[in-house]
Specification:
The protein has a single domain, classed as Four Helix Bundle (Hemerythrin (Met), subunit A) (Up-down Bundle), CATH 1.20.120. It is 79% helix and 0% strand. The chain has seven helices and no strands.
Amino acid sequence: MRYTLVSCLFLASAFGQTDSGVASEWDARKMIDALTSQAQHLKPIIDQVQPAAWVSKGASETYVAQWNTVQTQLKYLISSSDAFSRQPERLPLGLDVYFRMQAVDSTFGSLTEGVRNYQNPALASIMQSVIAENSTNRDRLRQYLSDLATQKEQEFQVADREAQRCRADQLRQTPPKSKKVTQP
């Protein structure tokens, strides 16, 4: 009976139907695709930013480096999101997406201030609103990753207990009696 219970737990987790609150694979993909779409929406906005022209207005060269960083991180975010969308049960892929998103948001915020001061306050407002729109997706991703990590830990604990039980059962079994070999 215990074997049946453990098997059921593993089957339930394999199909994403546990009581741990992890979103279904379908819902996870929809959320990840929304993140990817939002990241792609940032690309044309970033392309309008011209930090090299700001330097002549007294801006720091750091803005140019931040602009390059945002473009690079955005490409990585989109490719990471695509990989995670294909395998939403892979926690390392999800963490990669989350950390890349955090990096884009952090650098994007500073770049937005540069746009406000040296280029166009209206464009800066658009940049802020795009990041704000994505906050719901970011929060959903954070919750999904937390739930997924909890589920993976629970699965590991169940597997570890079952392995310990099997090991104990094997140790309790009596070794087969060996036949004594008589010498002629």
